[in-house]
Amino acid sequence: MIQENDRVLLAGRKREFFVRAGEGEFSTDKGMVKLGELVGLSTGDKVSTHMGFEFEVREPRPTDFFNYARRTGAPMLPKDIGMVIACTGMNKNDRVLDAGTGSGIAAIFFGGVAASVVTYEKRPEFSEVCAKNIEDAGLDNVDVIAGDVLEAEGEEEFDVVHLDMQIGREHVEHAWKLLKKGGYLATYTPFIEHTILVMDTAKPLFAEVVCHETIARELTRTERGTRPSTRVAHSGYITVCRK
């Protein structure tokens, strides 16, 4: 059931709006929605504008936060986040450390999977945005720390460490110390040079080091036919290292 100040997705006829339940009205091209009417509703319920246009009410999922939450930069794509989750076997028993929080999108996905997440963001103004996005997502198992991940403590405490940031050798070495035996380090790097640094630093430390280039293509279907989308297929490199 939707509560006061909850984030809500309004969906109707190829239109979507990311709103907050509570006081005031929200203007759409199909009329005004009274936000107070959203309180007490559930996913699948309908709300009407003053012009009689109906929107379906949906409780947002992590993919909706990727699409609509406030951003501090370009977040990881869901396909890349999914590869991190799959390749590390992230699960409900895991304690996860995330660094380079940014908007908090990856942390929101991880928080829906893992037992707990600690996410570090060095820039205070970014960590404030991240903390608000995570609060809006209703996650009480994700802690946001405004600080340098190199200050993180807890030797062999984490099951998964994820880094999406400018990575130096010291970050890989510190991640190794934080991981439990059998745990995983996963890094996202957009360029080959950064990827090579991660791999070369990790190989003497970790039992397994595997790098994946993440490529995905959407299909575009029209009356003329079906073909791969012209969007950029490559997004980055995911390096997965097991201690």
Automatic annotation (TrEMBL):
Single GO term (MF): tRNA (adenine(58)-N1)-methyltransferase activity
Family annotation (SUPFAM superfamilies): S-adenosyl-L-methionine-dependent methyltransferases
Domain of life: Archaea
GO process terms (BP): tRNA methylation
Gene Ontology CC annotation, any one: tRNA (m1A) methyltransferase complex
Cited InterPro entries: Methyltranfer_dom, SAM-dependent_MTases_sf, tRNA_MeTrfase_Gcd14
UniProt entry keywords in alphabetical sequence: Methyltransferase, Transferase
Entry keyword annotation includes Methyltransferase: yes
Domain Methyltransferase: 91-191
Listed PANTHER family: TRNA (ADENINE(58)-N(1))-METHYLTRANSFERASE, TRNA (ADENINE(58)-N(1))-METHYLTRANSFERASE, MITOCHONDRIAL
UniProt name for this protein: tRNA methyltransferase complex GCD14 subunit
Organism listed in the record: Methanolacinia petrolearia (strain DSM 11571 / OCM 486 / SEBR 4847) (Methanoplanus petrolearius)
